[in-house]
Amino acid sequence: MSAHPFVVVREFSPRTRAVLAVNAVNSFGGGLVLPFLWIYLGEIRGLAAWIPAATLAVQAGTAVFGGLAWGAVLDRLAPRSVVTLVMCVAGAGTGLYAFAASAPTALTAAVVYGLGISGVGTVLRFLYAGAATARERGLAFSADYAVFNAMTGLGVLVGGLVAASGPGSDAARFAALYLADGCTFLAAGAAFFLLLPRLDRAAGPSGTPAEADTARRPVGYREVLGQRTIAVLLATLTLCSLVSYGQLRSGLPGYLTAGGAVGPEGLSGTFAVNIVVAVLTQVLLGERIQRIRRSTVLATTGALWTAAWALVLVAGRQHGAAATVTAMAGVLLLSVGEALVFPVITGLLNDLAEERTRGRVNAMLSVAVSTGSVAGPLLAGATLPLADGLPLVVSLIAVCAAVALLGAAFRGVLPSTADLPDPADAPAQDGTPDPLDAETAEAVDTQATEAVSATAGGKGSAPVTAAP
Hints:
Blueprint: H1 5-9, H2 14-33, H3 37-44, H4 50-74, H5 79-96, H6 103-129, H7 134-165, H8 170-195, H9 209-216, H10 221-225, H11 228-243, H12 245-248, H13 251-258, H14 264-285, H15 294-315, H16 320-352, H17 358-383, H18 390-410, H19 416-419, H20 427-430, H21 438-459
Helix pairs in contact: 2-7, 2-8, 2-21, 3-4, 4-6, 4-17, 5-6, 5-8, 6-17, 7-8, 7-14, 7-16, 8-21, 11-16, 11-17, 11-18, 14-16, 15-16, 15-18
């Protein structure tokens, strides 16, 4: 019998629950400022039209290179120090946006924030990957996906209300959002520094000091990508990001609105479907999916996405309510696939990674998702003008079918323990000791509760910033 999602969360170690709690607050704050950067710089600050575009481009480019650097650092230093530094850099970057009244300030903020935010997702996944069992690790990635989407969506709603009707001038309200965002990053860094005092790399490999040192000695990205299975998985993840994240805010709305098939109201409805379905899928299926082969989940996702883009293709040839309903059905399937495949591939990559390369693997994971998210709009911009966008959607259908075939092929390649981790592999059942001892576990639980309560009570609607 499947456990209730909230019962499953109680199985997590204190460390995993602490990371989830802190990231929930961060995700809410990320939603508060998520939609506003272009509007803030262009309309509120009155900067030239090229500045918002250049700022986003610089931020994205810095994030790619920064992510690789943080991955290398994680393979050398204790994560407690790295996560604190990452949060401080990201907080300083987003706080600088509050003062972005000129191009140099905006671009400086983009560099600092891009460098910091590129490490946030990497270090959080690294911390989840340190769970005692493969079961907890997989469930943690699923729970994090649900928490991120739910709290980001809530933050977007609250941030919109504050930006539209809060006290003071428009510039002051937006500046306050970014400043509070930065303060919460700093609070998250402090929380991790206090909650993870005993989490270091010594908790990983065992053996003699010499053996442990050899096991932890980092290697370069070339050696990581030289592992064929990991390299193909990262390439597959890039394709998944391209056809989902990369098109949801570019190709999909561009195709549906170009011929008037779906209006602004219908488009808003499709985005609401995306957030709600992504959260519900994880809440209802997050634990159950751990009992299914990961290769099967990948193949199923490819099939779902193939059907999803076929529905979008049909919707673009319709008008009115029929087009909106068909488009929502397509987005529903896209959302289910997203909620299933990204946590599963994240868990799979971390199961395949060696302890000494885990930081770099998670950095490459972030780069793969970012690459797909950036390549998606570029592909849409190049192909949407052709034949009313038909080549774009047909290409996406073909890529999704390829993902389904890759998923089926992985079944014969993946180690059985990675393709289907033992669902009974949990600390309470197999006696595997928690990385934190009992005394530390109790202390972390107490501190986590106090930290989250203080953050929620002391900040109210003050924003935070989400991991990517």
